[in-house]
Every structure is written in structure tokens, then in C-alpha cells.
Specification:
heterodimer; A: mainly alpha; about 65% helix; about 0% strand; B: alpha+beta; about 15% strand
């Protein structure tokens, strides 16, 4: 393999890794600030200017907390759970195109770690593995509340993946490609998929909430019912990994939604400005991040506004409403493609 | 299946979990032992005694001026009403006539604390069902009420303001103005509660048809207050056995027949508006005059048994005193609303889901220190 490609990809991986973690860390800060904004209070403002160092203080606190592994737990699996969850959360970002190609050192550098031709399937596969992190963690704790939380988490995530997959199938029918970069490039010039697949987008968005375990679908960790849900027994940085991975998941979900339905790094009018390649590439990264930030805000806005579902209502919504709707969406899309194109 | 040497699954395959004494949604040290089949609740057994402070026994060692203030620590959100019940039973025994001004202030403070208590309940319903923001909405108004209490009674939570024969001190000169401000703030903001929680479809689905308590059950379990009134039981003491001049006031007893958590929610929301109505009638017509009737320095009740009940924010509080003619009660017994209302939970939650139990506990609105005393 060409050494320069190896270096290029390694640098990109390191940058992506740190950006994912930084965004996840600052999502916790944003969550608290947005909650404060919606609840008419200040939020964290002690650590650093406007409380900007709060995520570092929180992270540091997590590291210094006592590490408790219950006697009754399965120690290997107990440690494995958060590791899987965090690893899978960070892996998904590889298939997402973060911007247009840069032109540096006489070569084009793609801002995507791997332009997989099955990018969407890859993301789905990795996300499905993430469920094991929760299941294993909840089961290995040997705690009744954790077990209930793990059962809820696994059934919820598996149920909502179905509807999510169905919503994606309709999208794939129109795009004819599983590569995320292809899908993004097809949307250039305001041909955003959300206008062609509004129903599919809504289903995908609801499922993304469920996949990220966010309110109103935060049943696996309902603190008022199951104390802490699957992470009841976790402490120190293992708990930190679970919480952190959830924010990473939220970041990745926002990126996937932006890429699949909102044109990814494309924004109308900017494409037609004929900017130099590198400037255009940097702007495109900012465009994608602006979209991602909007969706992260949207996730938080919903969380601090709505109460949560009951477990059986959640399952009913998944199986009896979203899944049939998604199937209907596939049929409509198929019929439309067959007769009008 | 065993956990730490103890069976966690019964012979019939039911999974036993202990909710509490440390659990986020029991609001205190209530301990519920729950038999589960999957997520469905088969049986609930409440375990008490984690916050027993022997208030009844302590009351027997204290004089009739002192024992009143222990009751602020029972249902701490209805401190004024609890104090009022104790003051009333002593007044009844001594046959003292309370001055009109004291009666008016008593009612105003009682209704303000009823609103404050219901606001806290509204906040915690939202919180228990996953919506954190309503908490801050409700606490904005509760804060105003608490400040008012602090200005006049010196305490924000466990107010001690009643003495046998009246009240301890006259209220501040700007009391009327401040109450009007608080009431205006509450009325201006009340629609926001409906917007953020009452009108929410997810929230309604969590409460409608959940935790049904029939009228017969409510009566036979001795439920009272909004919990019983939501099941169609007419039981407002302010109407049936008026005290301190409630008979002169115009207000409605809110009775619904739904019997489910949604009915309990609506009863409490409507009661807040009724309390506002009472306060608005009183606040411009506060009589002038004494605030306390003259009583002896050392109060000795005549020999006999005395009982007085009042309507607290959670239901009927009864104070029963047996006097041997001494300066302390021979026996003091409190009939607390929460103890009786607690017994409704196992019946209402049976067959429901874990999430329903949370909704039921939230809408029955238990105060744990009042259960144990």
C-alpha cells in the first residue's frame, strides 16, 4: 500500500476521533446549557468563561471517582460492556463523508476515512453491535434494575432498527447506491432527500431518537423507574464511557441524518460560487457541522420538552405504526419509480 | 435464580424487585416490594417504618402549646393545615372562640400552602414521567409562595404559625399586596402548565386509564382528598364539616368519576383554581381586630376525648386527643391521609406496568413522613 495513503488516513482517523470525542464532550455542555435556556436558568457557568471548561471538569471527576465492580457481577463482561458500546460509537464515523476533497501536497485528500460502497449497511451493522454493549453491561451487573434496563434496551433497539431500515430502503430505491458519498453528491443543489422522502425522514428521525435512547424513548435508563437502567451498577469512567458513547451516538446520528436527508456537506448557492477547491472543502465541512449542530440541538430540544413513553406504548409505536408506515413508504416510492420515471 | 444467596424469582416464575427505600420516584423512604411478571405487576407490598419518628408518642410528652409544631414535620407540604387541625382540637376542647381575623389568616395561609403543595406535586408528576422542564415552571410559582411564607411565618417549609386560640403573630402590613401579586403571577402563568404537560399526548397516554381505583375501593380503603375525589367520593371536609369559616366561602368541591390517574391529575389542577378563588374572596375582606383569643398560660384540656379533622392538600387529617385533665394529652392519635392513600397503590397498580406504577405513585401524591409519622 502507498505509504502516503496510510499517513493521510491515519491523520484523518486521529482528527475524526478527537473531533468525535470533543463534540461528545461539548454536547454534554450544550445539553446543560440548552436545558438551562429552556428552563429559564443559567446552567453551568463556574468552570472557565461561560462554563466552557465544564466538560473537562466532568471528565476529570469521572476519572477520579472510585471504581466499583460488584462482587456478584461477571467481571470480564462487566468491563467489556462499556468498551463495546464506546468502540462501536466511535467506529461509525468512518463511513461518513465530512466534506469535499482537499487538494494538499499535490494530491486530492478525501475527507472520508473509507468511501465504502456499502456505507449505510456498515453503519447499520456497527450500530447493531452497539446493542451488545448495553445488553452485556446490564446482564453482567447482576442487578435486577440493570437486567430490566438491558432487556428494554435490546428489544427497543432491535424493534426500531427494523423501521429505520425500512425507511432507508425507500431512500435507496431513489438513490440507487449504498455509498453515503454517492447519496450526498446526488443531493447537490438543493435536491435534498427530505423533500422526496418526507415520510421516510420522519420515520428515520423517530427511530434515531429510539436508537440513541433519548427522551421520549429513554426507556432503558428511565431514572424514575429503573434507577439508572442498564448502567445502575456502573461507576467511575465506565459509567462515563456509557454516557459519553450516547452523546457520540447522537453526534453520529445527526451526521447520518444530515447526510442522508439534508444534503450532507452541500448547501445551495455555495456550490455555484466557484470557490477554490480548498476553500470550498473547508466551507463544506462547516456546512455539514452546522447541520449536525442543528440536529443535536433538536435532539436536546425534544428531550427537555416531552415526557417519556411507557414501555408497551413504545413497542406499539415501533411495531404497529412506524413499521407499517415505513413499508407503505417503500411501496409508494416503488410505485412512483415504476410508473413516473 | 439466586442473587447474593436470595431467591429473586418465585416458584411461580415471578420476578421480585424492591423499589425503595432508596429510589428516585418514591419521593422519600417508601419501600415497595414488587412481584413482576415481565413488566407486569402482580403484587405490591409496601414496607414502612424507615422514617418513624414517634411523633404521636412525643406529642404525649408535650404541652398543648408545644405539640402543634411536631405536626409540621408530618406532611411538611401541608404544615399550616396540620397545625390548624391541632389548634382547632384544643380550641374545641376549651370552647374558645377564635377571632375573625385569625380565622381569615388561617384560611389564606392554608389555601396558599395547598396551592404550593399542588405545585410541587405538578412538578414531581412531570419529573416522574420524564419531563424535567415542568418542574421549573411550577417551582417558579412555588418560590413566590415560599417567599411569602418566609416573610410572614419565618419559614419556607415547616411553618409553625398556629397557637391555640388563633395565630402566633399578625401578618406583615403588605401581606394583602403580596398575596395579590402571587395570585396574579399564578393566574398569568397557569396556562403554561396546560401547554407543557396537560395538553401533551404522550403525557395523557401515560395517565388515561392507568391505575383505576373504583369508588367502592376508595371508600373501603379510607382514601380521602383528591385521590378519593377523583374516584367520585364526595369527601371535602371544608364542605362537609366546615371549620374556621369555610362555610361562608364560595368554592366548588372538585369531584370526578374517572378513577384513573388522569382524573387525579385533573382534580388537583382544578383544586388549585378553586384555592385561588377562595383567596380572592378573602383577601379584600380581611377583618381587623385581635389575632388570638385569650387562653391560660398552661392549657389543661377537660377530661374527655376530642377529635377534629381538616382537609389538607392530600386529604383528611384527623387529630384525636384523649385528655385526663392534665397539661399533656393522655393519648394523641393522628389519622393521616397518606397512610390511607398508600393502601390504594397496590390495588390501583395491580396488573399495570412498572411505568404505570410510577404514574400512580405520582398522582396519588404521597408524602412519606406523613405515612410513618
Amino acid at each position: 500500500m502507498d505509504l502516503s495513503i496510510l499517513i493521510e488516513k491515519s491523520v484523518l482517523v486521529v482528527i475524526l476521533f478527537s473531533v468525535s470525542l470533543a463534540v461528545a464532550a461539548y454536547s454534554t455542555y450544550a445539553e446543560r446549557k440548552i436545558a438551562a435556556f429552556l428552563q429559564d436558568r443559567y446552567g453551568p457557568d463556574r468552570a472557565g468563561p461561560w462554563g466552557l471548561l465544564q466538560p473537562l471538569a466532568d471528565g476529570g471527576k469521572m476519572f477520579f471517582k472510585e471504581e466499583i465492580i460488584p462482587n456478584a457481577s461477571d467481571k470480564f463482561l462487566f468491563i467489556l460492556g462499556p468498551c463495546i458500546f464506546m468502540t462501536t460509537a466511535l467506529m461509525t464515523s468512518a463511513a461518513i463523508p465530512w466534506g469535499k476533497s482537499l487538494h494538499l501536497f499535490g494530491r486530492d485528500i478525501s475527507l472520508q476515512v473509507a468511501n465504502l460502497n456499502i456505507g449505510i449497511l456498515y453503519i447499520f451493522a456497527i450500530v447493531s453491535i452497539g446493542v451488545y454493549g448495553i445488553m452485556i453491561g446490564g446482564w453482567a451487573s447482576n442487578n435486577k434494575f440493570a437486567l430490566l434496563g438491558a432487556i428494554r434496551a435490546s428489544s427497543q433497539m432491535i424493534s426500531y432498527e427494523l423501521a429505520m431500515g425500512m425507511a432507508i430502503i425507500a431512500l435507496l430505491l431513489t438513490s440507487n447506491s449504498l455509498s453515503i458519498r454517492d447519496i450526498v453528491d446526488q443531493q447537490a443543489g438543493f435536491h435534498w432527500n427530505v423533500f422526496y422522502q418526507p415520510l421516510g425522514f420522519i420515520i428515520f428521525l423517530v427511530c434515531a431518537f429510539a436508537e440513541c435512547n433519548r427522551t421520549p424513548f429513554d426507556l432503558p435508563e428511565t431514572e424514575t423507574e429503573l434507577v439508572g437502567g442498564y448502567h445502575t451498577e456502573y461507576s467511575s469512567m465506565k459509567l462515563g464511557l456509557y454516557l459519553f458513547a450516547e452523546y457520540t451516538n447522537m453526534f453520529i446520528s445527526s451526521a447520518v441524518i444530515s447526510c442522508l436527508y439534508f444534503g450532507g456537506y452541500h448547501f445551495p448557492f455555495i456550490d455555484s460560487l466557484n470557490l477554490p477547491q480548498n476553500v470550498a472543502a473547508i466551507i463544506s465541512v462547516f456546512v455539514l457541522f452546522a447541520k449536525v449542530c442543528f440536529f443535536i440541538f433538536f435532539f436536546m430540544w425534544i428531550r427537555w420538552t416531552l415526557p417519556r413513553f411507557r414501555y408497551d406504548q413504545l413497542m406499539r409505536l415501533g411495531w404497529q405504526m412506524l413499521l407499517p408506515l415505513a413499508i407503505v413508504n417503500v411501496l409508494i416510492t416503488g410505485a412512483w419509480l415504476t410508473y413516473f420515471k | 435464580m439466586k442473587l447474593l444467596g436470595e431467591d429473586i424469582v418465585t416458584e411461580t416464575g415471578e420476578f421480585i424487585i424492591n423499589m425503595g427505600p432508596q429510589h428516585p420516584s418514591t419521593h422519600g423512604v417508601l419501600h415497595l416490594k414488587i412481584w413482576l411478571d415481565g413488566e407486569t405487576i402482580k403484587k405490591i407490598e409496601p414496607h414502612l417504618g424507615y422514617i418513624h419518628r414517634s411523633i404521636e408518642k412525643m406529642s404525649e410528652k408535650m404541652s398543648y402549646r408545644q405539640f402543634i409544631y411536631l405536626t409540621s414535620r408530618m406532611d411538611y407540604l401541608s404544615a399550616h393545615m396540620n397545625n390548624q387541625a391541632c389548634a382547632l382540637v384544643v380550641e374545641k376542647a376549651l370552647q374558645v372562640e377564635v377571632p375573625e381575623r385569625a380565622k381569615a389568616i388561617r384560611i389564606l395561609l392554608a389555601e396558599l400552602s395547598r396551592i404550593g403543595s399542588h405545585l410541587l406535586w405538578f412538578a414531581s408528576v412531570g419529573l416522574d414521567l420524564g419531563g424535567v422542564t415542568p418542574f421549573f415552571y411550577a417551582f417558579r410559582e412555588r418560590e413566590a409562595i415560599n417567599s411569602l411564607m418566609e416573610e410572614n411565618c419565618g419559614a419556607r417549609l415547616t411553618q409553625n404559625f398556629h397557637v391555640p386560640g388563633g395565630i402566633l403573630e399578625d401578618v406583615n402590613p403588605d401581606f394583602q399586596k403580596r398575596v395579590k401579586e402571587v395570585i396574579k403571577q399564578l393566574k398569568d402563568n397557569f396556562h403554561e402548565y396546560d401547554e407543557i404537560l396537560t395538553g401533551n399526548v404522550i403525557f395523557q397516554n401515560r395517565l388515561k386509564g392507568v391505575g383505576y381505583l373504583s369508588k367502592e375501593d376508595a371508600i373501603s380503603l379510607g382514601c380521602s382528598g383528591p385521590t378519593a375525589r377523583a374516584s367520585g367520593v364526595v369527601c371535602d371536609i371544608r364542605k362537609s364539616n366546615p371549620y374556621d369559616g369555610y362555610e361562608k366561602l364560595e368554592f366548588d368541591e372538585v369531584v370526578l368519576t374517572g378513577g384513573d390517574s388522569w382524573a387525579r391529575y385533573q382534580v388537583r389542577m382544578a383544586e388549585m383554581l378553586q384555592s385561588i378563588k377562595i383567596i380572592e374572596q378573602m383577601i379584600d375582606n380581611m377583618p381587623e381586630g385581635d389575632i388570638v383569643a385569650k387562653t391560660k398560660n398552661v392549657i389543661k384540656l377537660p377530661k374527655g376525648e376530642f377529635y377534629q379533622r381538616v382537609e389538607t392538600a392530600r386529604g383528611e387529617l384527623g387529630v384525636y386527643i384523649v385528655s385526663e385533665g392534665a397539661a399533656t394529652p393522655y393519648r394523641c392519635k393522628y389519622r393521616s391521609p397518606n397512610f390511607a392513600n398508600l393502601s390504594a397503590i397496590p390495588i390501583a397498580a395491580k396488573g399495570g406496568k412498572i411505568g404505570d406504577l410510577i404514574a400512580i405513585m405520582a398522582t396519588v401524591d404521597l408524602i412519606i413522613p406523613d405515612i410513618d409519622r
